[in-house]
Design the sequence.
């Protein structure tokens, strides 16, 4: 068993930024564990551009964005163990890993940063009706096959779900000569970023059909057609609105799920709404010394925000290690109130400026997001538009926290 | 087209057909098994609850009761010989009201006559065994067990193959004639000549029987839909939990089944359908499944679901009558050496070893079968790396690089297991072949992670072209081709 000060699980954007921040805050003994052959995480298959606008004021591709961080990690000689999967994580920060060269290794760390990212919701996860033939893929898998293995999954394509990866793949597959017939979205609004709707669908004349879903998939060996229906405001099929679309491929872009199987092994408490850990304002979980950031904590819309968040986690992990594992008491509870789906962090402490990340439940215009304590306003911010697909950030100055009347604050949309 | 000669031709490679093939492989007789799909066990054998039944639903004195009891008492040994998972988890049939409690005693009465060990237990006992289940009383069956039905079917076929049975996949029977005292079986591949025909074609057994001039049988396909829950729900349930069977339903009612791999199954529903191979799942039934499961076990939630699938029962009881009837295993009235197996629905998996013995005894009476000098009853499956103790894992990983690469992160399956699965004795090279042998793509991400990796292994290790990579054979091609302008 090898002892390490800080082990970071995942060398995607979250893991790399967390490592840099921990290093720059004085930690030298850092190990990043990465299951792929190279660092970068999901960014490696995101060959489109649009990354880095907030962080670098530039438009980068996914691999370019990852490289900015990887280069700094390499300059600092931070160790990345690639082709290595963590198969076990325990609350005492024990890790069992398997490496393609060496075999099985065991580590004991002072602190662990969870940066494993997310996985895609599947056909099973949405209870897609119909038979189980070839030709139904998730968008991320399609992207992996297309961009990393040069494999085109199909020719006549319908995309279910308007998540960003689905939109990106609509354009990508069109450029590869496929006929993308439609993007269907069960909700009355899109789940993707506006810029992706414009650049990936409208620019390519691909129809986006809101309040539409798939009720049957047909074909014996390979997909032959799908049956589509319109849905009402309760997402129930409207009888008589069904029609058939011939296609050989159905791509699902129906959401991402934080990949927390390891976290659960380590008794990390999971938030039912985000699917990620319940964290304090320093991104520490309920297990002392285990921190979480990036898509494993909650699903982000922009990688730039992942980097910001991961820097906080890396810094906090460094502080935890240097302070001799001091555990801070966090006792103010943050509640997602009316119109808010979730707020990160869920627990805060006094004494520092805070930034909250949140998502609203439904799209709306001219809304104010308020932070309340004991029904009194302590902070607010007004938005021309709010969208569930776009993360909202609100800052709260530490002074505001000094005069709290109760030990909980609530965030609402009004 | 040239014709191949055999003594016995088995039509249908489900668990029954493969069990018969293995039983016959003990004797000096030349046997072939014909399966129309690209792998064995592609019908009801891979889409059932995987339960080894204790024999309390089969009518007393029936053939079904006999073969089921035989199967129950021999299953553990069979699974040990064939390296197939088997767990004697026990079953609770749970009554929620007084009327159902009375029905429990009826079940116990029938079951005891069949020779099953059954106890009626009270609320406290239920709570002690299954903390999350509520019930007034239950019938506890300690001998009910679970297995992996598809692994068993594959293992039976592989063991039969090792012992000399020929297994012909992708071989569909198109017609059978008796010419010069032998059956000439016309197929979509080479034609087959055989002295005996064993019709274990499941849903298609009525069609096959009609080739022998026997038009009495009609199969009524009856679909059962299932939900599969994530392994992380496995702590919710440790026994088979069944409702008291609904009257005349022809099913056992939607039940909860722990699987040998740690998932929970919800199902199956019970719905007669028109089309014999419509394995669709439907929105309405899936909603019903989750509702009924939650009636039993409220902690189950929709987000635990990782997959849904359907299996189709081959019933001989028409929908207007419903319920169960006995298995039909008999010689065709026109030809003694044409044996039809009709209506082998639940407990067909449990009964397969007993049915195989029964059928082989029928042949033995006509043919006087001779034991082979060497019959190897053992078959070894793929080494399941994640199930080994740490010390053994370390040794294997040190020796073999294939065990150092995890291809499937949900089920912790290594590259070596994928390679072993692709090197299977039956020569199945489809993605589903890998799935049923190595479990890859069966986890919570449903192949989202490992599929691209398996495809790479197929291309690199096995030199398969993209066009050859299929889900299940036939025209189930997974990909349209390479990207534009891409050259190898």
Sequence:
């Amino acid at each position: 068993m090898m002892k390490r000060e800080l082990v970071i699980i995942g060398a995607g954007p979250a893991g790399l930024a967390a490592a840099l921040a921990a290093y720059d805050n004085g930690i030298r003994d850092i190990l990043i564990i990465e299951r792929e052959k190279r660092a970068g995480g999901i960014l490696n298959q995101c060959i489109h551009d649009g990354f880095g606008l907030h962080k670098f004021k530039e438009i980068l591709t996914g691999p370019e964005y990852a490289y900015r961080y990887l280069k700094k990690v390499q300059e600092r000689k931070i160790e990345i163990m690639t082709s290595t999967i963590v198969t076990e994580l325990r609350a005492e920060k024990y890790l069992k890993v398997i490496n393609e060269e060496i075999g099985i290794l065991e580590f004991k760390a002072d602190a662990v940063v969870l940066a494993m990212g997310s996985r895609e919701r599947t056909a099973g996860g949405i209870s897609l009706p119909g038979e189980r033939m070839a030709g139904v893929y998730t968008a991320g898998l399609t992207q992996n096959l297309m961009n990393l293995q040069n494999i085109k999954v199909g020719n006549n394509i319908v995309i279910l779900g308007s998540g960003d990866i689905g939109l990106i793949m609509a354009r990508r597959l069109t450029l590869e000569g496929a006929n993308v017939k439609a993007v269907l979205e069960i909700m009355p609004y899109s789940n993707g970023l506006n810029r992706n709707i414009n650049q990936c669908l409208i620019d390519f004349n691909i129809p986006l059909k809101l309040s539409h879903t798939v009720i049957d998939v047909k074909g014996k060996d390979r997909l032959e057609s799908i049956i589509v229906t319109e849905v009402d405001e309760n997402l129930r099929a409207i009888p008589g609105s069904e029609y058939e679309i011939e296609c050989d491929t159905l791509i699902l872009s129906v959401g991402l799920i934080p990949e927390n199987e390891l976290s659960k092994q380590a008794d990390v408490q999971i938030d039912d709404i985000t699917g990620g850990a319940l964290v304090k304002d320093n991104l520490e979980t309920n297990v002392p010394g285990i921190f979480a950031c990036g898509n494993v904590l909650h699903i982000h819309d922009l990688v730039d925000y992942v980097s910001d968040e991961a820097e906080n986690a890396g810094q906090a992990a460094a502080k935890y290690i240097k302070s001799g594992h001091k555990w801070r008491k966090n006792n103010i509870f943050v509640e997602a109130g009316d119109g808010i789906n979730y707020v990160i962090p869920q627990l805060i402490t006094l004494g520092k400026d805070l930034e909250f990340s949140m998502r609203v439940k439904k799209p709306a215009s001219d809304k104010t997001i308020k932070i309340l304590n004991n029904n009194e306003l302590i902070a607010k911010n007004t938005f021309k538009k709010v969208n569930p697909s776009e993360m909202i950030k609100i800052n709260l100055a530490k002074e505001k926290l000094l005069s709290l009347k109760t030990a909980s604050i609530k965030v609402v949309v009004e | 087209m040239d014709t191949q000669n055999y003594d016995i031709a088995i039509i249908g490679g489900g668990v029954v057909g493969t069990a018969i093939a293995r039983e016959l492989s003990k004797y000096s007789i030349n046997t072939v098994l014909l399966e129309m799909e690209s792998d064995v066990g592609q019908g009801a054998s891979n889409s059932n609850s995987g339960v080894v039944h204790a024999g309390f639903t089969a009518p007393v004195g029936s053939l079904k009761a006999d073969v089921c009891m035989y199967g129950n008492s021999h299953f553990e040994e069979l699974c040990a010989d064939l390296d197939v998972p088997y767990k004697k988890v026990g079953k609770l049939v749970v009554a929620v009201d007084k009327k159902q409690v009375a029905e429990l005693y009826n079940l116990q009465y029938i079951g005891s006559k069949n020779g099953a060990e059954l106890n009626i237990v009270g609320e406290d006992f239920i709570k002690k065994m299954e903390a999350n289940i509520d019930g007034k009383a239950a019938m506890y069956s300690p001998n009910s067990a679970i297995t992996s039905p598809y692994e068993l079917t594959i293992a039976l076929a592989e063991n039969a193959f090792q012992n000399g049975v020929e297994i012909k996949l992708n071989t569909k029977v198109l017609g059978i004639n008796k010419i010069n005292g032998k059956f000439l079986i016309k197929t979509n591949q080479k034609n087959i000549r055989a002295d005996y025909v064993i019709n274990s074609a499941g849903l298609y057994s009525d069609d096959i029987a009609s080739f022998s001039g026997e038009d009495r049988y009609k199969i009524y396909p009856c679909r059962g839909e299932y939900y599969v829950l994530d392994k992380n729900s496995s702590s919710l349930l440790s026994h088979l939990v069944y409702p008291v069977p609904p009257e005349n339903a022809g099913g056992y009612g939607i039940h909860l089944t722990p699987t040998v791999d740690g998932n929970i199954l919800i199902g199956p529903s019970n719905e007669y359908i028109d089309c014999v191979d419509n394995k669709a799942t439907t929105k309405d039934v899936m909603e019903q499944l989750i509702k009924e499961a939650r009636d039993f076990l409220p902690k189950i939630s929709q987000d635990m679901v990782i997959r849904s699938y359907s299996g189709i029962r081959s019933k001989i009881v028409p929908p207007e009558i419903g319920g169960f009837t006995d298995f039909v295993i008999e010689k065709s009235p026109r030809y003694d050496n044409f044996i039809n197996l009709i209506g082998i629905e639940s407990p067909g998996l449990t009964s397969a070893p007993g049915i195989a013995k029964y059928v082989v005894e029928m042949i033995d009476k006509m043919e006087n079968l001779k034991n082979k000098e060497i019959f190897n009853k053992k078959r070894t499956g793929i080494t399941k790396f994640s199930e080994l103790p740490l010390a053994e894992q370390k040794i294997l990983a040190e020796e073999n690089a294939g065990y150092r690469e995890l291809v499937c992160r949900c089920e912790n399956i290594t590259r070596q297991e994928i390679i072993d699965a692709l090197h299977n004795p039956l020569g199945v090279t489809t993605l589903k072949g890998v799935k049923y042998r190595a479990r890859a793509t069966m986890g919570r991400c449903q192949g989202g992670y490992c599929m691209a990796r398996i495809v790479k292994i197929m291309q690199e290790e096995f030199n398969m072209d993209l066009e050859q990579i299929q889900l299940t054979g036939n025209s189930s091609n997974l990909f349209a081709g390479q990207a534009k302008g891409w050259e190898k």
Summary: Chain A touches chain B through 53 residues (CB under 8 Å).
